[in-house]
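Study both lines:
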Amino acid sequence: MMTEKQSNFITRAIFGILFVVVMVGSFTRPDFMVGLFAIITGLTIWEYTGLVNSIKGVSVNRLISTIAGIYFFLAVAGIELGMVRGFVIFVPYILCVVYLLVAELYLKNENPIHSWAYTMLGQMYITLPLSLINILAFGSGDSEAMAEPNMLLPLSIFILLWTNDTGAYCTGSLFGKHKLFPRISPGKSWEGSIGGGVLSLIVAGLIGYWANNNGEVQSLNIPVWIGLGLVVVVFGTWGDLVESLFKRTIGVKDSGKILPGHGGMLDRFDSSLLAIPAAVVYIYTLSQF
């Protein structure tokens, strides 16, 4: 008969594999990717607003915030795919934001400033970073939408994040002695972070080698891929720490329970919330030279 620990491990492994399969499968077609990440954006904002609404004096409109986030994601996707043009596509989103601000005049909440702050934080911390994955897939720093999507680029961000996490866990478990950030995340060590980072750089180089020898559209050269790996490792680690600080601040261990054995949506995508914007800035900056 299995122990509870063994049962939890099996559950975690099964849902971990399913998660990876769904994520990788979504990058086989642009419409799959856009659809999945629109759902991810909505679920993550819904989870976030539920967490902050548990804070005394905070009241965030979950429904409007979630709808606004999904709309913004789809608007960016539409522009990058060349389906829509012009700033007018963002008018409904702007109206949602204005409504969320003006509504506090009439709701008589205990501390409207806190409600405003947490409302805008959700849009900046979750909606904007996840929406930028469309830039990686369909824009890659160009001023106009790409003629052909580059699905390897956004997929590689997650491959590098998963590699970093796996390498950090294995190396940290074996050699970890010096705490990376004990105040926020006591389980992380410098040894683990370095091990995960080195493994990610190796994988980034291998991805670059494969891409440059298999005719991938607008492929980066190998040194640029390795640089991307470094960016993802550094900002992905910071993203993980930022979410840990957020959870410690509001007093929760996991952000949710939507993924058995893996916590909530924020727990799964925390690293990407800083890694994606950093990757976009990195690639855009290189495209200017």
User: Anything to note?
Assistant: The longest helix spans residues 222-250. Confidence is low (pLDDT under 50) at residues 140-147.
